[in-house]
């Protein structure tokens, strides 16, 4: 039986291959990301090589989760009890968009912004969380997207420096 791939299917596979570490082959193809079919929840711009909306990479929730997710349970300063977060590893997300910078400016819906060095994504467990305790997070409770470190994995992460990088209500990112 012979199968066929739509351009959208090829682009998704190319993006997943890049996320799995086969970036050289997919970078050479310079295939754009698929266009979001649902509501755009994240836009990434700046020093990126893979876009789908002019010079930006826009994602809906299905696209983000389609990159593959991880989960961990950790204590945070924002919740009384340990919380289980699920989401996309930041290192994978940045690889898929072909990020070529050294830092990331993350901006929330309320325009709070902070810079996160790429070193964090190479050396620490950091995710763009889409769910907390198995449920999507509403805007009124830090959603829909939240930069989360696995604070319990390393005592160094239980510090204001990392808490301030934990942006909730994430809307956009700029690679610098």
Give the gist of this structure:
The chain has 176 residues and is α+β, with helices and mostly antiparallel strands.
- The tally of structural domains comes to 1
Q: Main sheet: which strands, in order across?
A: 2-1-10-5-6
CATH fold-level topology: Sulfite Oxidase, Chain A, domain 2
Intertermini distance = 46 Å
Mean pLDDT: 86
Biggest pleated-sheet summary = 5 strands, mixed
- Beta-strand share of residues: 25-35%
User: Uncertain runs with pLDDT below 50, 5 residues or more?
Assistant: 1-30
The structure class reads alpha+beta
Shape call: globular
Q: Total helix count?
A: 6
CATH class: Alpha Beta
CATH homologous group name: Oxidoreductase, molybdopterin-binding domain
Q: What's the Cα radius of gyration?
A: 16 Å
How many extended strands?
Answer: 10
Overall helicity: 10-25%
CATH architecture: Alpha-Beta Complex
